[in-house]
Amino acid sequence: MIILLFKGVLTATYIEILKEFNEELIKERSAPVIGSNRIIQSHNTHLIVLKKLRDKYITNLEKITNRKTIIYYSGFLKLNPVSSSFGMSSQSRTNDMHISINDQDINAFSSNIFSKISKSTLSTNGYDIVLHTPGGAATSCEQLIQTITAFCDNNFRTIIPQQAMSAGTMIACASKEIIMDDSAALGPTDPQVWGGLPAQAIVDEVDSIINEVKKDQVKILVYREILAKYPPTFIGQSKEAIALVDELLKKYLKRNMLAKKSESDVQEIIQNFLSSHKFSKLHGRPYSPDVCLEHGLNVVKTSSDANLKQAIESLHNICLLSIEILNISKLIDSVDCDAWIISSNQLLV
Predict the structure, then answer these.
(1) Running DSSP on this structure, what letter comes out for residue 271?
(2) First-to-final CA distance of the chain
(3) pTM of the full predicted structure?
């Protein structure tokens, strides 16, 4: 097995890493089997080899950045590969709590990651989170960001190798800098309610109906059925969801990435870009690095640093392979830490 060395940096395609995994698996299996349960032993061997390879490629990236690296991966593309063409996929993917950002993630960061890493090291050198997620609950995202920033005084960056959508974009906006592959994407942060309906579209529809009825009260007969589909307090809850997301984004952007921008400039980025349903049209719409740069986010494209690009791609490939082989819903890991793995609704460490 040959892994390329690109200017001192390990680079490996998905197929190359798969071959490397198989070779390491053969070596590991050549060791004596302890006990009589070979099925359990075989499963543990997969865990050991994949952890060894992830540590190898995380370390490879850390040598370039001189920063601690944490990987946060969801298996959403494998477990629910629904097309996002009509803006429904992000919500359908996040229906599974294990693939979405949720309260369990906070335990993973606190007990498995930050408990093993010196806080002074994280605060001094900072760290990077390699992020691949469809999003999740805004409230879970809020507490997760609180946990992340408590250990580094806001000195963290996010690396997006492929997708960090919805609440994943909120985490990226809380970082000081977003590093994106040229083919990677962030996504709209406008809140989805009641099974995936865009809150802003609902509020806009009701406001439009009210204005029409003010002009011609006879139209209430036409619009009555439309209004009847919404349960009591639903419109108010939609407005509150919009206000919460905007409030959080403004706080995160102003205290870190866009600290030097005025509050009005930050608010404009949120209202006209990040949380604008009118701009996105669909909640699953991908925002390229160029689009994010154009609208004021602090984005660095990996195409500007070949070494960094190769290291991120190689790490992304081993993470995807881990998800494929172990049927992973959620993977949170770092070197010298126990991996937090949710597979088939079970925690594997």
Answers:
(1) I
(2) 28
(3) 0.89
